[in-house]
Amino acid sequence: MSTLARERSFPRGPLLAAAGLIGLSLLAASVARLGGLPGTALPDAAPAQSRELRFEDRDDGAVVVRDGRDDGTVAVLAPGTNGFIRAVMRGLVRDRKRRDDGPEIPFRLSRWDDGRLLLEDPATGARVELESFGVTNAGAFAGLLTGGRELP
Fold first, then answer.
1. Long-range contacts: 51-55, Cβ < 8 Å, 24+?
2. How far apart (Å, rounded) are the C-alpha atoms in residues 86 and 8?
């Protein structure tokens, strides 16, 4: 081997240390898994409250949120307000249009007993975990579970 090749080779000490660290990590993960230590997955939760909703655009720019069961008005989103609700629904409706699904099937908004909010589209199978967008944005949808008021 030439002197140049020996000078450019990776130092043996750090290479062995890295290999040892990887081996130790795999060993620790195996022991934890086989030893029955609990994982980090969230426990199963059950829906505590659920509501089916339809969203209709009005000519004046407002969005009317209707109950999917009795078609009653849950809320009216005034023009230029509730941007998060409008953006989420715009994306879900776009997916429906791509699949040629119409507005007949209502969306399902659920609060789980662990506090999570989930918006589902039964037509496309899409699911939006609303708390991942922050408390304020999730709160905009939470108001639709109790509804019956004019949202700003």
1. 51/108, 51/109, 51/110, 51/144, 51/145, 51/147, 52/106, 52/107, 52/108, 52/109, 53/106, 53/107, 53/108, 53/109, 53/144, 54/103, 54/106, 54/107, 55/89, 55/93, 55/103, 55/107
2. 59
Long-range contacts of 5-11 (CB under 8 A, 24+ apart): none
Convert the pLDDT of each residue in 103-139 to its tens digit: 788 999 999 888 889 999 999 999 999 999 998 899 8
- What would the mean pLDDT of 3-25 be, rounded to a whole number? 79
pTM comes to: 0.66
DSSP 133: G
* Longest pairwise C-alpha distance within the chain: 84
DSSP 3-state of 16? helix
109: left (phi over 0), alpha (psi -120 to 50) or beta: beta
**Among 50, 55, 59, residue whose Cα is nearest residue 151:** 55
Which sign does the torsion angle of CA 127, 131, 136, 141 carry?
positive
> Would you state the structure tokens that stand for residue 37, as one six-digit string?
């230590």
